[in-house]
Specification:
Chain B: This is Formate dehydrogenase O beta subunit. Chain B: Pfam families: Fer4_11 (PF13247). The structure holds three protein chains of three kinds. By secondary structure, chain A is α/β, with parallel strands linked by helices. Chain A has 21 helices and 30 strands. In chain A, a hairpin with a 4-residue loop joins strand 21 (about 565-570) and strand 22. In chain A, helix 4 (about 65-80) runs antiparallel to helix 7 (about 160-165) and helix 4 runs parallel beside helix 10. The longest helix of chain A has 16 residues, at about 430-445. Chain B has one domain: Alpha-Beta Plaits, CATH 3.30.70. By secondary structure, chain C is α+β, with helices and mostly antiparallel strands. Chain C has two domains: about 10-100, Phosphorylase Kinase, domain 1 (2-Layer Sandwich), CATH 3.30.200; about 140-190, no CATH class. In chain C, about 55% of the residues are buried. The chains are: A alpha/beta, B alpha+beta, C alpha+beta. Chains in contact: A-B, A-C, B-C. At the A-C interface, helix 11, helix 14, strand 12, strand 13 and strand 14 of A face strand 1, strand 2, helix 4, helix 5 and strand 4 of C.
Amino acid sequence: MTNHWSDLQNTDCALIMGGNPAENHPISFRWLTKAKEKGGKIVSVDPRFTRTSSKADVYASLRSGTDIAFMGGMINYALENNLIHREYVAEYTNASFIVKKDFEFNDGLFSGYDEATRKYDKTKWAFETDEEGNPKKDKTLTHPRSVFQLMRKHFSRYDVDSVIAVTGTPKEDYLKVCETFCSTSKIGKSGTIMYAMGTTQHTVGTQNVRAFGIIQLLLGNIGLPGGGINAMRGESNVQGSTDFALLYHLLPGYVGTPTAIPEHATLEGYNTKETPSGGYWSNKPKFLVSMLKAWYGPNATKANEFGYQYLPKGNKNYSHINLFNAMYKGELEGAFLFGTNPVVGGPNAGKEKEALSNLKWMVAVDLWETETSAFWQEEAGSDPSKIDTEVFLLPAASSYEKEGSVSNSSRWMQYRWKAIDPKGESLADLEIIHMLVKNLKGLYKNESSAAAKPINALYWNFGEGHHPDIDLVAREINGYDLSTGKLLKGFGDLKDDGTTSSGNWIYSGFYPEEGKNRSKNRDNKDTGGGNFLNWAYAWPANRRILYNRASADPSGKPWSDKKAVIWWDESQKKWTGNDIPDFKPTVAPADPGGTNPFIMINGGVAGVYAPTLNDGPFPEHYEPFESPVKNSFSSQEINPAVVIIEGEFNLKGDSKKYPIVGTTYRVSEHWQSGSMTRNQEWLSELAGHMYIEMSEELAKEKGIKNKDKIIVSSARGDIKAYAMVTKRFKPHMMNGKKVHQVGMPWHFGYKGYATGDTANRLTPHIGDANTTIPEYKAFLCDIRRAD
Amino acid sequence: MAEYIKYVDVTKCDGCRACMVACKNWNDLPAEPEEFQGSVQSHANVTANTWNVLSFIEHEDSKGNLDYLFRHSSCFHCSDAACVKVCPEDAMHYTDFGTVDVNSDKCVGCGYCVQNCPFDVVQLATYKDKNGKEYKKAQKCTMCVDRLEEGMQPACVTTCHTDAMEFGTQEEMLKKAEKRLSEIKDKYPNAMIYNPEGVGGTHTIYVLAEKPSVYGLPEKPKVPTSAVVWKDYAQPIGKMMLGATSMALVGAFVSNKLFNKEGKGHEEDGGGSHE
Amino acid sequence: MVEINLNRRQFLKLSGATAATLAVVELGFNEKEVHAQTKELKIAKATVTPTICAFCGVGCGILVHTKDNTVVYTEGDPDSPVNEGTLCSKGTTIRQVFTSEKRLTKPLYRAPGSKKWEEKSWDWMYETIAKRTKETRDKTFIEKENGMFVNKTEAIASLGGAALDNEETYLLAKMMRGLGVVYLEHQARI
């Protein structure tokens, strides 16, 4: 989230799309209810009329997988009706940049496409630059090759009628959404976009989010209270676990992993290639070297490139989908699973389950026996005698049986204290990880093989006992000035010469001095604007609203007093206000860079044009991998830059055999794969049955009555569930064709108190072109009565 | 002493059902999973171990506009409560807050309260004594009277994140309800305050977005005449005649018909039943 | 330990805006009488510990009431500016994460081809897992590729971690990268 939960109360309009916060992030509605009481509007866009929709002022339906068409139309609506914050756009975005003549767009393809590799040559999308390498600009936004004009041209194809022919949205509803949300372009108004996995779990997921970014920049909504782009995180610490880089392509703090390319052969080479010339990322070498100092301690020296060579360097995409594909092919021997249940939660889950039996060993750390750790059981439909996988199931302590911090969607790092000893023999994951490392280090202690070197060099100094000292871990994350041994005050003090350490630079400063772990802060006095600066700690640097420099005009004055966050105080010669400036506090508006609010980006302005993405600098509508209709925007059916896994792991369904659009979602009472909640009786009681929601029209066509047992099938598998016939799903009419959609919760499996078939046995094994996040949210299926 | 009531503004509720589990959590009530209801609703009705149920209603108005309505349903804590009237053991009683509670020590499980509740909220729970013998006790929402006595609000109210439920003095809550009603009349022309006079007003009052029947509530509930007859005439006479200590014994002789559920029908004028 | 002091008095004060209007004094209750009539309030002698909800990313504050080595009640933390004492159904029920009879309480091992779990000691688990990890790692370790150091194994994967604490995710990332694991993924991707 650029903003935070309680800030939602400041919004004039919340566009909720690709998410259903009333059901999945219920407490957000505490703040949205307050916004409503102050006259704010809620707009809900969803294929199904949800509980969020029921609380909305405006609801519009769309077919799953048509978000770019929907948002592209809104961008066009804003541009055509001049409902944009023009000065903001000209000053704070790259709309004024001139793009080279190489950029082209024809029939769904941007220039530079290579069909054989399904990749773009992104140099074709570059900006024109001056002698110093800075992009050329036209702040009048009239140059025909300015980003602004190219954007206008690109989205001019998204006129209302073309859009609704794809999305199936009733025209009146569509116009109402555009009108309501674009009204936040007015100075003194702000609008927020709230989304979740309904946005990202598509082959065009990244571009779905990009479309949100573009409209929010055009409306001047980023950096403002009640504004921003707010991804609602689904797990208590998925923000933190991402910050700490449990992802193949990242190191802590969003530093990219070095890969097996010649440029990354040395630390210097990596730094040269990966460090931009401007923006805050120009400090990347400081972040990386300080992390290496935290990881390898005294074994990280200038002479050995601070241990850079110890880091593993991969040579391909190792993301979830590819991981399971490799497992399926027998390329993996062992796996560690920390609180995860892919046999329910993974795409094409039936096949992911099969893949597990190719492992030699599996370590599962969990509170419960899950469908995944029990994949070898007869109950799972397996023949145990034929499965040779050794499984180690380690009982983990729950969140309040140990202490530690978690980072919520707002980036607030909040401490959890220990309320009770771990149940039975269960142990905190911290201890389990610590003991595994100690045992491994013990085995390698006297070896000097190639494999032994990196593990022997790993600095592991968290106390002598079985249970590591969590305070030492916290301090290592914050980092030290190694010359004095003192804790660092913040990431501004990091150096690239080995004299500082920090396990994760974005968190540096949360523990600035002895006895001051700021994640433990519990002063809930409102410090202004509802930002609660003394409650917990928000990375980076305790800033609550990112890009808050953009809440003020170029001269440093808030665009509107009603939406003030920070402002330039000439008498004090610094930025001041209700939040920590997300900006160098002493850089005056007239100073170089003084009007560049987007400090992380080289050039300091936001990108309405993104020449770095794999699938194009502007979002473009493509149909999902499986779609009931042809793409009416171009002859490119699916995102031309996605990687298609061929073979039985990703069978594709034909729209003749599977004419219905299927999607998945969550319910309030269950959480993710359900292992936490289906093992609790009160929640299992509230949501105890697997069901498929469908419209009355579809039920009638299929001869299905409410509560009937039905079978849903896709090219990947079949599942059985109850029919829930509802008025809240309606068929979509597109170009005169009626397309049905069904939806279902994906929480169920065969373990726990509440059991049911697993929806993900239906979903395909294909991911987004940039993130490889699977396309769970739009696939084809068919339904029939079970008897 | 001022009377206290729970005010439920269904138009603010977003159906999260925290009130249902907060109730179970505070009152240590067991789960009792029911079969699939054909909607996301978990229980058809409140029961002896599920003291409040969130009902989910898909409602299309006369213009075909769809709304998804939610209602936290639990004991109404009537001012003139049929359950109190018919209870032969004075187990059902009014608390100092004006709410209705069951004294389990006194309850003999006769079920008259169950039969006579105009809202179907009282039910019998079955327990076993140490010899394995089953016995029954009437159970329902207590309005968390143990919390009230400690100056705390009912558990369901405390947990409600949209402030769809509030607890306070009757006067203050009724004022809030009136104000809210005026705010939502434009959006919900059928909106009303549900605080039925036929039972002397209630200690759980609602602002409803639609007519009571849309929520499965009786439009004009009344204390059944039979209950009035029983408590106000038959019971005192019976006690006098028999000198019995347990009126449940007497109750057993009273014709089933007097307490018959079906008999309740004529007490109401119209209105739907819980479905 | 907990760095706040939520004693009973404060807790009551925080329990909701109208608590004051329901003051014991106004109601004329004699405390002794109340206790004589009803059982002791279930959280009266419980220890209160603040935590953050383990479910979605909102990060609501929760108070965990513990007594006699079990969890007797869980409710919203009225101090938290995120949820101001309120919770959803999942957050409210977090008590059962501890009390559920389905919790694993012992390390379990499943041998190749076996139909059942066997209970094992933690030490045995650590030692055996470390041994398996080392065997696989040593066999598949790639020190160099095209002349450059790559120090990786492509035969071990690590999945999950979105419910771990920050400190745990940090150690997990450090451990896995330290081992040369490149198949490092978790729920943020799915």
